[in-house]
Structure formats: structure tokens, C-alpha cells
Amino acid sequence: MTQPTVRPQFLPSPCGTSAGRASLQTSCTAAEIWTPIISCPAPFATEFFEKAVEQLVHHPEYNSTLILRSETLSDVRILSEDGREEDVKILLETPPRCDLGGYRPVRAIRRRLLPRRPGRDGSLEQTCVFYTDAVTTGTEVEKVYVDPQEGKHSTIPACHYEDEQENIASLLVLTPTLKLGEALPYYHPAVRRLAVRYVRNARELSGDEPETATLSCGMLFIEAVLPRSEPAPPDPPDPNSRLYRTCLALLDTVHRYGWGALTHYRKRVHHDMLVSRETYQDLYLVLRERYKHLVSQWKEATDPAKHVFEDVGIATFLMLFWKATYASDNTSVEFDVDRGGATDTSTMPWKNWPRPSGGFLDLGYASPILTPFSERLSAFNRCGNGLLVHILVSEGYAGHGIDVRARQSWFHYPEATRVALHVYSLDPTCCIHQDSSRVEPEGSITDSKSSDDTNNDAETDFFTPGVFLIGNHADELTPWIPVLATLCDAAGYLSIPCCAWGFDERFTRSSISTSSLLSFSPGSSLQDLSSTVLEKEDTDDQSAFIETLNLGAEGTHTSQYSVYRIWLARLSQWMGWKVECEVLRIPSTRNWGIIGRERSRIDGHEDGELYKERAREIIGEVVRRGVFKTRKPEGKAGDH
Questions:
Q1: Residue 241's closest CA among 35, 43, 50?
Q2: How many CB atoms lie within 10 A of CB 547?
Q3: Can you tell me the distance from the alpha carbon of 378 to that of 384, in angstroms, rounded to the nearest whole number?
Q4: CB under 8 Å to 412, separation ≥6 — which residues?
Q5: Span 431-449, mean pLDDT?
Q6: What is the percentage of the chain residues whose pLDDT exceeds 90?
Q7: Are 628 and 368 in contact (CB under 8 A)?
Q8: CB-facing half-sphere around the CA of 599: CA atoms within 13 A
Q9: Which residues contact 198 (CB under 8 A, 6 or more apart)?
């Protein structure tokens, strides 16, 4: 039998009590009636069901956009040596213990569900008990099966199961814990208990059949104990009811997770590599509350919700990333995200957090004119609205933002933000004319201030040592960011690439082999240095290097965007930066960021002059080609 290449079709159906399927039987301290809601065939065995529901318990946010995450309060393996008897008793007795016929508990997890909108919903504690359908009788066990033709359950003896096999969970029961008078939050269905159950088919696969055979190995059921105050539900359940739709989504998730476990699914994108998810989400909730009013006050002709919350997300990441990077001995700070259903925005502990010694510099769209495409591109560039600068400055971080023109939003920010925003056209090629390795601001065409409140100051040295460069969809400036960071002895940089650009032309996959600028060795002196340990390791183990980039998407990494990101990473290496990558939690399809914060060492020593010489040779090649031209500042600044 051949293995299916895609997940078998999800075939749910209502399963009322009249369908001939036996529901769960309980002997709880209080009489409870289980109501079958929905079922579907399961194309995987019990051990994969266990993996699926375990994922469901630890990541409820994957199944509901109203849930932020869950926090595990306790986790007890009931039959293991480390499971203390008193812990088991507490978990199983509160809420009231539920004994189910034909099942015994093997694991109990108590978790707290955190809402995505703390101002609207509160948190909820929930007990998640895993049961096995192996009922031990001496050295034998009995197991619950379902006849695939009649749909009825039966208990069939099976001899001498191993202990590990006996403890595989085939049932998960979720029970919310409510205080007296407390109501369930909206994101939780109106039930007292909810059960996800796996029941094997009476016919099992033979030994020569593959584990991914299309034969349905069993059935998945979702059943619930409804509140006593609720009227008896229709039989079968109403497919349009909220409870049925919630259970349908839950069943689909379990079906998908089980198939993924069976086929050894591996996530291609990993979030939270540099900043923990919990810390990020907690700070994000605080900052979102502080800046959500800007959605209704948006001045640009772009989607306000997307851009406001995207910049809030980037600011959140940077604040926590800087705190971790530049900290010496800092205690972690947690945020009150759910006390009385509100987020505490009055405390601002990040005012004293570590940060780059030279502040930050947000490179908006201070870019050169490269090709005739430039004018068209500038029409939809959104990086110059100044919001990221506004958030960081408002939260106590020193820095600047530069752009080739003042945006409408700039004039509506507070004065502290306006003085940090500058109309400025950057010319990276000016660096080759400097005797010093410092980057001086000769790229600015303006030499005086306009009558508005934004700065157009050619005298300001933005590229000071220790500055942290930020390029969010900087387009033509994207490849220049690691080069400039090397030349000005920057503390580091974050670049979130979008459109693919080389130094003075559009980047294409074919241009890597045809353009000397894209090989990182345009000069003969650098050609002789290409055998250093850094490049040799890169050549010897290219696949391993690409794996560290967390590119996601297709496995071959041959798309235009993937090739461009690999090229940017190699450029960063060539400029002497240790490459780190993060897939940011922001509302954008272009959310991959490349980060430099540590310098590479050759033979145990940092050779800063070597990397600066490489940067100068790239600039020299750009000047020699003659394609690069500096964009003139627009608006009032451009008239000076």
C-alpha cells in the first residue's frame, strides 16, 4: 500500500446519541451526562493522537485567535516515580474527580489560559487530564475499540501489553476551574467539561502495511458535559450552533496535528530564537495599549492597524533584544497582563533597561536613486512614517530617524519625536573619500533647516560609534546596512528585508554569478583573503549555514526571496558580523530579520580594519560602475 502524499480528507459528522455510538460513561461525585458532539475518521494510531492533544494543551493559541498562550502551572505523570500522591490528588479532585468507565488517568496538567485581549476577557485555569483506555487486569489489559461498520464500541481483551504501551493516552478531558460566581470567558465554550477521544477500529493494520496507510485507524470524538442550566441540545447537534463550530475547529486541529505527528512534520520557521515568546507577548500587550489610539489618528494613506501594530511589535523586540544584549546583571521583568482583566501600562521598568551606547538610527527611505524603478518604489514605501522612532523615543530611548522627505505623520508627533526625525539623503559612496574609517554625513544635500518642525541638518553625525542601525523594509538601503555598520563601528543592526536590491541595481538570482559586486571580492586584495577561516567554513558547510538562517518557505531555498536573504547573510559575514536571524511576530509577510551584534574573529582576534577595507572596496566598485546616484530630499528640504 502506497503512502499518501497529503493529509487524508477531513470528514466530520455530527454524532448524536441516536447514531448508535456509545458516549463516555462517568461515575463522578456529581452525576454528569456526556453529550456526543462531532466525530471523524482518524488516519493515525493512538501514539500520534497523544502527541496531537499534547500539542493542543501546550499551544491553545494555534486553535483560537482569542487566546494569547497557556502557562503550565503543574504537570504530573500519575504513574511515574516523580508524581507525588498529594499532587495527583489535588489535580484530580479539584475540580471534582471524573472517573470514566474503561479509562484510567495517566497524566494531569493544570494550565492557565491567557487572553489576547486582557481588557475584554480574563484568564482561566483549566485541568487537562490524559486517560488511557488500557484497563489493567493482572498481567493483561483490555482496550476499547469501535467497529468501523456498525460504529459501536466494544472492549476486547489483549494480552501482555508493555507498560509504556499501556500508558499511551487515548482520551483528553478539559475541565475549567471557576470561582463562585465567576463566568467562563468568551473564548471558552459553554461547557463544564470537554473530551477529545480516540477509539481504535476493531481491524488493525497488518505488519507489512505502512504506518501512513490510508485505512482509517480509528475514530475521533468530541463530547461535552453541558451546564445544568442549559436546555437539552438537539440530537444530533445543530451544525450552526457555536458549540458545534468550536468543536469542529478543535477536531480539525487534532486531525491535522495527528497527521503531522505521523508524517514527522517539522516546522520550517522557528520564532522566538533571540527573545522569549512569553516576555515578548507580555511587553507587547503593554505597548499595544499605549499606542493603539494611533490607529484612529493615522495620517498616512496606508492600513493603520497593520502599520501601528507592526511598529509596536518591532519596538517590543528591539527593547527586549537590547536589554538582553547589553545587560550585565539585570533581573528579569514580568508584566501584569491579567489582573482584573486589565493591562497595567503605568509602570515603565524599561526606562532603566540597557541599550546601545550610541543610541539608534532608523534608516527610513534615505536612499539613493539606483534605477528608473526608484520613483515607482517610493510611492509605496511605508518605512518613513516615523512611528517606530516615536515609540522608542517616547519610551526613553535616544536615537534618530532619517528619510528623504518629511511625512505627514511627522508634524503630529510630540516635539521630542519631531526633533529626532530628519530629512536626509544618505550617500554611502561618500565614505570612500574619507581618510578616517568613520562615516560622515556628507550624503545630505541640505545645508539649512526649513521652516517646519523637522530637522534638515547636514551637520548632525548620525553614524556615531556604538549606534544601532535599523532598516525595516529599507529596500535600496538594505544591502548597505551591514556595510555602514562595519564602517562606523556600530553596536549592531536589525534589517528586515523586503524588495530585493543589490548595491546599485535590482537583485536577481542570476546576478550573483554575473556581478562582481555580489561576490564580496571586487578588489584583487580581497581576492587573496578569500581563504580565511570564515569563508572556508562557509564554503565547506553551506547547507549547515543556510539551516541557521531560519528561512522557512520551500525546503530547497531557491526562490528569489530566499536566495536574496542568503546573499544578505553572506554579505554580513563578509563584513565581519556573526549572523543571527529572527522571524518577528509582526503582521507582515516579510517578517524575517537579520541581526548583527557580535563581530567575527579570525584566529581568535577581531580584525576590524580588514572588514572596513572590504567595505571600502565595495564602495569603490560602486563608484567605478557609475550607476549609483544620490536621491535629492523631497518637499521643503529639497528646495534648499
A1: 35
A2: 11
A3: 10
A4: 297, 299
A5: 45
A6: 39
A7: yes
A8: 20
A9: 42, 46, 49, 170, 171, 218, 219, 220, 221
